[in-house]
């Protein structure tokens, strides 16, 4: 069975996408197409390139892509996507959208207009980097003279390119809203503020999904918890296994 997926951004919480897709694979449900942004677009690039969730998990574990994006590096101005770019160049077997075995749509935000831009043609890697560029922490990525930033700013659940083309869309959102903690860290406050600011389009788009996955246990992890790969992966995996049990009969019966 093949179904279209949409994968949200979420920093290190994006590791959960791999666990989510693994749980679907266990039920013989595979991506028909993927629309994604930010951290979700990194995972999606590998899946659409033909890698299995197990293979993507191994890549993430052994390349440590997130280490160049840790919050502690902000003081030295060292936040960079160069490690991500290097791993993508070394690992992807298909580097253009047209050559990917599975259709991929990557959403970034035009920094000039604030509007969503969906990439589905041309080079994959620049689009992934553009979609993953968190404003104020990373410089914009320029493509064809236009600066782009994180796609989550305009739509953190970017199912727009799937609408009218695919049925039974599966939405995966890795940023559950947690209770407010006035004693939290600066990075936690920034994380919460950002996701409150971009929450409205997510709430709207989740209603258009046939099945919506949002592992509530991910609230314990921060955007920069890249060293906690295994825990984040397992949280996505175990939650989705239970969610699919609850949604028995899907997609014949809608479960949102």
From TrEMBL:
**Keyword terms, alphabetized:** Hydrolase, Lipid degradation, Lipid metabolism
A Pfam cross-reference name: Patatin
Q: Which CDD domains match?
A: Pat_PNPLA6_PNPLA7_NTE1_like
List the top taxonomic levels of the source.
Answer: Bacteria, Pseudomonadati, Bacteroidota, Chitinophagia, Chitinophagales
Please indicate if the UniProt record lists DNA damage as a keyword: no
Annotated active site residues, numbered on this chain, are: 38, 150
Q: Which domain of life is it from?
A: Bacteria
Annotated source species: Chitinophaga pinensis (strain ATCC 43595 / DSM 2588 / LMG 13176 / NBRC 15968 / NCIMB 11800 / UQM 2034)
Q: Give all residue intervals belonging to the PNPLA domain.
A: 5-163
Q: Where is this motif: DGA/G?
A: 150-152
GO biological process terms, alphabetically, are: lipid catabolic process
Q: What is this protein called?
A: Patatin
InterPro entries listed in its UniProt record: Acyl_Trfase/lysoPLipase (IPR016035), NTE (IPR050301), PNPLA_dom (IPR002641)
Motif (GXGXXG) positions are 9-14
In alphabetical order, the GO MF annotations are: hydrolase activity
């Amino acid at each position: 069975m093949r179904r279209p997926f949409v994968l949200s951004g979420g920093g290190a919480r994006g590791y959960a996408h791999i666990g989510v897709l693994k749980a679907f694979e266990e039920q013989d449900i595979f991506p028909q197409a993927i629309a994604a942004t930010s951290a979700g677009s990194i995972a999606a690039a590998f899946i659409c390139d033909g890698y299995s969730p197990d293979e993507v998990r191994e890549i993430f574990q052994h390349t440590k892509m997130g280490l160049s994006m840790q919050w502690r590096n902000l003081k030295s101005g060292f936040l960079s996507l160069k490690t991500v770019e290097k791993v993508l160049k070394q690992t992807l077997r298909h580097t253009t959208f047209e050559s990917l075995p599975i259709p991929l749509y990557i959403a970034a935000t035009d920094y000039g207009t604030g509007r969503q831009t969906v990439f589905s043609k041309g080079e994959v890697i620049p689009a992934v980097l553009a979609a993953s560029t968190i404003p104020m922490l990373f410089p914009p990525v320029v493509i064809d003279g236009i600066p782009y930033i994180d796609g989550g700013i305009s739509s953190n659940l970017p199912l727009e390119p799937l609408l009218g083309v695919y049925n039974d869309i599966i939405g995966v959102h890795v940023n559950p809203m947690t209770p407010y903690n006035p004693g939290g860290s600066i990075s936690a406050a920034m994380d919460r503020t950002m996701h409150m600011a971009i929450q409205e389009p997510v709430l709207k788009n989740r209603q258009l999904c046939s099945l919506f996955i949002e592992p509530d246990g991910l609230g314990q992890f921060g955007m920069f918890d890249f060293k906690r790969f295994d825990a984040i992966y397992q949280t996505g995996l175990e939650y989705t296994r239970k969610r699919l049990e609850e949604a028995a009969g899907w997609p014949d019966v809608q479960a949102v």
